[in-house]
Amino acid sequence: METTPxxxxxxxxxxxxxxxxxxxxxxxxxxGLICIVGTIGNCLVIIAVSMSRKLRTKTNVLVVNLSVxxxxxxxxxxxxxxxxxSENGWPLPDWIxxxxxxxxxxxxxxxxxxxxxxxxxxxxxxTLSRARYHDLFTTFNMTAxxxxxxxxxxxxxxxxxxxxxxxxxxxxxxxxxxxDTHHDNAKLFNIILMVVFYPIPLGxxxxxxxxxxxxxxxHTRKIANATMMQPKxxxxxxxxxxxxxxxxxxHFSKRxxxxxxxxxxxxxxxxxxxxxxxxxxxxxxxxxxxxGFGVILLCNSCINPFIYGTRHPDFKxxxxxxxxxxxxxxxxxxxxxxxxx
Length: 341
Description:
This protein is mainly alpha-helical. It has a single domain (7-334), classed as Rhodopsin 7-helix transmembrane proteins (Rhopdopsin 7-helix transmembrane proteins). 73% of the residues lie in helices and 4% in strands. It has helices at 21-51, 58-75, 77-85, 94-127, 130-136, 139-162, 186-197, 199-228, 236-282, 290-298, 300-310, 313-323, 328-334; strands at 7-9, 14-16, 168-171, 176-179. The longest helix has 47 residues, at 236-282. The termini are far apart. The model is unreliable at 1-14, 233-242 and 332-339 (pLDDT under 50).
């Protein structure tokens, strides 16, 4: 591959993405940290679910799928560091860079759609009856959903390959293994990525969060009204009933609001990590910002285990036991979280 300096020409003015080599070192270092943290975190999630029966729920099937996609992305990042550090073009065989670009699209695309799937699953779990939830999320439907999450990015890769066998690979402008940003179909491909990978998962997460919030608010108000209408004359049975209602109200409110806050947190992370890069894909200019926002997007692969792991009571116990090299029995024994609640 011919050597290319840091300065690239884009149909007019000269654009310098990397002004100094220290920028390359910084990006490569951050990518390396994402690789290490993400690999450890996603492996912990996968191992925890495989070892603890308490964690083998339908929702966590999607969490494992998310971790698998993110793990693939993290294991693929060392090639990205090599590309960023190389001032004179991709130093290894071209097929490695092309494969890296395809795997990156595959893993990130599947991860984003799985995030949306998890939000929908939790929304149905909270707003629907248990019987209805299990009718919808059967083994067949769950399998079909996961396959669909992988097929979407595979279809995008197929589109990229249709543009040319060398379309996926080294970007001389950004010094990254993504796709040829000087190709005639590069702008079209950017739009396709934006349209397919951004609005659908974001819509699923946003709608699910709103429905959970609305359900929790309505249910809490009904319980509050029912409590206020109880007779004020206290007797033994009446006092117990009032106390029981209050306890149920408090338990529901705290548990469901915790899940609601978690989903709102997911939306915030999605917007922070995905939106800047997605917007830059379709807007002209801003080439200097693409590597930085690309690294921010990659952070999604190492943050997800902490969102779906550390904020879940059973995962907290499982992680602690795994780090202490405990057994499957000890993880399951110390866990008190009820499946699918």
